[in-house]
Design a protein that fits this description.
- This protein has 197 residues and is of the alpha/beta class.
- The chain has one domain: Phosphoglycerate mutase-like (Rossmann fold, 3-Layer(aba) Sandwich), CATH 3.40.50.1240.
- 42% of the residues lie in helices and 15% in strands.
- The protein has eight helices and six strands; from the N terminus they run βααβαβαααβααββ.
- It has a six-stranded mixed beta sheet with strand order 3-2-4-1-5-6.
- Helix 2 crosses helix 3 and helix 6 packs across helix 7.
- It is globular, with a radius of gyration of 16 Å.
- The two termini are 28 Å apart.
- The relative contact order is 0.22.
């Protein structure tokens, strides 16, 4: 499969990011810093993107990604009507962990935390997902964008991690080591990955 070039962004910092509270399919507002990060990310994009009419922009439908995508589009003069919201690129579902801090999960769900740490790729959090499950929905999304030229995608760290692994053909252990700060803009191109400054 020939993947398009994907410019991959993570939403700006949120209030729950600051206190290590699992969001998953839940949400918390962007912080002032998160708004500034998103505006700075837009400036990075302005340096590398050409004609916007050749670019499709996809966003996770979750609030923090939508808010970030809206800011990005405002900064780039892209119509909000051009945003394509897709459930397949929403964040990893943390199930019973969602809305709780990492410490609370360790205290109340220690067996689940341990089981997940032992096999992070395959372990399905109760009422949530595994990375394997997230990868299935991302494969479906990638199949649908085959033939496109350039995609801008605004999503989340965990789903972006899985996407980067698929795009680059990484082993699961390599994929799980990937990180993406809220202010890191990546370009996926020809099975490689590059940082946009």
């Amino acid at each position: 499969m020939q993947y398009p070039t994907i410019i991959l962004l993570r939403h700006g910092e949120t209030e729950w990011n600051l206190i290590s509270r699992y969001q998953g399919h839940l949400d918390s507002p962007l912080t002032a810093k998160g708004i500034d990060q998103t505006k700075a990310n837009a400036k990075k994009l302005k340096k590398v993107i050409g004609k916007l009419d050749q670019i499709k922009i996809y966003s996770s439908p979750l609030g923090r990604a939508k808010a970030s995508c809206t800011i990005l589009c405002d900064e780039l003069n892209i119509s909000l009507e051009d945003i394509i919201y897709d459930d397949r690129i929403k964040e990893f579902s943390y199930g019973i962990f969602e809305g709780k801090t990492k410490d609370e999960c360790q205290l109340n769900y220690s067996k689940d935390v341990a089981a997940r740490e032992a096999d992070k790729w395959n372990y399905q959090i109760p009422d949530g997902e595994s990375y394997k499950m997230v990868t299935r929905r991302l494969k479906s999304w990638l199949a649908d964008i085959e033939g496109e030229s350039i995609i801008i995608m605004v999503a989340h760290e965990m789903v972006n991690r899985a996407l980067r692994g698929l795009y680059r053909g990484l082993e699961t252990e390599e994929t799980l080591q990937l990180r993406q700060a809220n202010d890191l803009v990546l370009m996926l191109k020809n099975s490689g990955e590059y940082i946009l400054n």
